[in-house]
Amino acid sequence: MSYFLPHDRLESWLDDLERTHRVFAPTAEGRGVVFRRRKPTAESPAAPVCLERRPTESARHVLFPRSEVLLAFRSAHDESGTRVEVFEQEAPAPQVIVGLRACDAKGFAVMDRVYMHGRYADPLYTARRKATVMAVLACVPGNGPDNACFCHWFASGHEEHDAADIVLTPASGGFLIAPVSDKGAEFMESHAGYLEQGNEELENAAAAQRLAAREFLEKHCPAPALSKTETAIMRQFGNSMLWETIGEPCLACGVCTHLCPSCYCFTITDETRGNAGARIRSWDTCLNAGYTLEASGHNPRAAKAQRLKNRIAHKFAYYPALHMGKSSCVGCGKCIRSCPVGVDIRAAVFRVLAADEE
Amino acid sequence: MNNTEIMKNVLERASVLLAWGPGHDALHASPLFARKAHDVDKVVMDVRAVQSLAAYLPPLFQSEKEGRIAVLARPCHVRSITALLQEELIPVERLILVVLPCQGKLDMAKVMAACPAAESLDAAFVDGDNLVINADGRQWLLRLETMLSPACVRCPMPELPDAMIPEGCECVRLDGQARRPGEGGYAALDAFMEKTPQERWEFWKQEMSRCIRCYACRNACPMCVCRDHCVASARDPHWLSELDSVTDKLLFQVIHATHLAGRCTGCGECTRACPMGIPVGLLKMQMNKIVEELFGYKAGMDSKATPPLLTFEAIEKNIREKGK
Ligand code: SF4
Ligand code: SF4
Fold first, then answer.
1. Residues within 8 A of A (CB atoms), B 223-252 only
2. Which of A168, A276, B191, B299 is buried deepest, with most CB atoms within 10 A?
3. Across-strand partners of B139?
4. What values do phi and psi take at B210, rounded to 5?
5. What torsion, rounded to 10 degrees, do the Cα atoms B104, B107, B108, B113 define?
């Protein structure tokens, strides 16, 4: 079953989704494209959705906020004495993210393995993840792969849809919409009001566009033998000259990790003011000196080269070692596009492989 | 000697030459730490070479491995280096300045707006007054003058005057033609200051709501020398809240701007580095204007001068004290 959404009905369809879901979609702001809650009201319509350009940031913060209050507390006094009141988070409302790209959705698949399974499952992430429908915008030539994209390196190429529920492909003056999970099929059934039926012709046109995008990717940036990177990185782990060369231009800011769809590190901070306080979880970045700073004052990763090494090794070696060989890099290229000094994680991987072959 | 030979020659006297090399595609360049003569063959130093290399100097000079350090610099970068020398953050005797006659540096957002296909380009190069881009089976010619960064539009001296070579510093000049000087002054800032305070506050609230706290603006800044010891990341004392609040983000920008008062050379790196396109440099430009009005001082022009906020006069000419 597929549907067709003509361009001129896109905004109304999105507004209609608000009946049942909170809608998050990319909008153009300043020079960037960022994911925002739409929240249209009678007085002010939502900012127009921007699907023509790749988002600058990932949609990660929708499920894993940059900063969230895990619990808040306050001590209250009355005749009966002093009590401590504790406030926890409420259960999340149903929500849908529209217009994230396949690589962004893959990022959630990477986080799912860490935060939804095993002993350390994270209840807040899990609840939000279950309450979220992912409507992925397929990349097509002219609105998709650029020189920084390399999603085809991973089994998670731009045509695969783990974590996606619905796929929108630009075609013939609108979007072909196809559910790719049960959740997606159910969602579409209750939101087909503004849509027309899809047909085979449209489906073929959409498939051809996606294939063309894949061909562009394969031509401009051939994939290395990724199966070798895990061992190569571990074998080169102590080659400090190599990592220093790779890390030399790095400024140790956090552009790469903050834009990344699959970085999931956080830090916990208790902040208090008077009788009240909060335990806050906020994003951390392995490029920050404080990331590994120990209470003694010792920092095992004092130099930026060691920090950048962690970022690359985590994505291409530690994570795959724990998760059936799957890399946690999804090839979205956001770090490459936005790094102020042009650090290219692909080039770093090639360098490690080359050093390992010598 | 051509420029490549000049640079190779310099490298014989230095352990490293900070330059730019190829970036992730033909439109971009990335800092290159040239240590061997053959590295110099990769140097890119036209309009694509946008980063200031001055930010690398203070930490690099601390490394015991390094001998003399040579650095490729546009005239605006020389001002940052002069400011670092004034504050004795780098040693003049170990520095070799390699100055290029400046053609300006690209504003990538302008290029992308003029030619969206450039993001998947096959080739890009400079031809006379134009940036040529081959993409999508077509060719685009973009007039260089219209593609330059806001800092270049303002820049009063694309050709470094001899008087501005820091005293005691070995300086090598590369061959080439500099572009004509820009408009100088504070036009962009003045236009912004026409807004009411309320409008400006709304502007900053909206812009900073996009801030992701990556601190690229800080780390790309050549004068931000606190590095791993910045107040923004301090846990104890914990100055800035971890809450995702616009006021805390703006508070950091205010700290950054005040810390740079009388030190900022207006290189534009903070604005360029911001991945979210927030024009944080405007805040510093306002500081620069105030410092210029109060003290008649512009940072990084004279290696012998003392930045006004690092010293004091018993009676400041342009500051009227209370009750006087
Ligand atoms: S790789 Fe780039 S974006 Fe990442 S910390 Fe280094 S300089 Fe910043
Ligand atoms: S570079 Fe931009 S997004 Fe990053 S901290 Fe600075 S203002 Fe915020």
1. 227-228, 233, 235, 238, 241-244
2. B299
3. B134
4. -90, -15
5. -130
pLDDT of residue A137: 96
Q: Hey, what amino acid is at B119?
A: E
Indicate the domain borders of chain A.
Answer: 1-223, 224-358
> pTM (2 decimals)?
0.94
Whether A291 contacts A285, CB under 8 Å: yes
Regarding the beta carbon of B212 and ligand 2, being less than 6 Å apart is answered: yes
CB spacing of B220 vs A285 below 8 angstroms: no
Which has more pLDDT, B3 or B236?
A: B3
**Ligand 1 near A341 CB (within 6 A):** yes
Backbone φ and ψ for B120, nearest 5 degrees, come out as -120, 40
If one counts every other C-beta atom within 10 angstroms of the C-beta of residue B208, the result is: 20
Measured from the Cβ of residue B294, the count of other Cβ atoms closer than 10 Å reads 15
Cis before B275 (ω within 30): no
To the nearest whole percent, how much of chain A has pLDDT over 70? 98
A147/B24 Cβ within 8 A: yes
Q: Cα(A304)–Cα(A307) distance, rounded to whole angstroms?
A: 5
pLDDT greater than 70 at residue B170: yes
**Atom of ligand 2 minimally distant from the CA of A255:** 4
Centroid of ligand 2 to alpha carbon of A126 (angstroms): 29
Chain B residues within 8 A of A69 when measuring between CB atoms: 243
Q: In angstroms, rounded to a whole number, what is the distance separating the alpha carbons of residues A303 and A74?
A: 40
Residue B324: is its pLDDT beyond 90? Answer: no
Ligand located closest to B208 CA: 2
Two tokens, residue A259: 């834009």
Residue-wise DSSP of A262-327: S---EEEEEEEETTEEEEEEEE--TTSGGGS--TTS--TT-SHHHHHHHHHHIIIIIHHHHTTT--
Residues A282 and B244: beta-carbon distance below 8 Å:
yes
pLDDT higher than threshold 70 for residue A160:
no
3-state secondary structure of A166: strand
Tell me which residue of A117, A134, A125 sits closest to A266, measured CA to CA.
Answer: A125
Burial (0-12, 13-18, 19+ Cβ within 10 Å), A65: middle
Check B210 against A289: CB less than 8 A apart: no
pLDDT digits (tens, 9 = 90+) for A68-82: 999 999 998 888 888
* Rg for chain A, CA atoms, rounded: 22
**In terms of residues, how long is chain A?**
358
Cβ atoms < 10 Å from Cβ of A328: 26
For B239, name the nearest residue in chain A, comparing CA atoms only.
A271
Residue boundaries of the structural domains of chain B? 1-103+157-183, 108-147, 185-324
Helices A345-357/A240-247 angle, 10° precision: 160
- Which ranges in chain A belong to alpha helices (H)? 10-17, 60-63, 102-115, 123-130, 182-189, 200-220, 229-235, 240-247, 255-259, 304-313, 319-322, 334-338, 345-357
* Residue B120: strand, helix, or coil: helix
Q: Is B127 on the interface with A (CB under 8 A)?
A: no
pLDDT tens-digit series, residues A212-265: 999 999 998 888 888 899 999 999 999 999 999 999 999 999 999 999 999 999
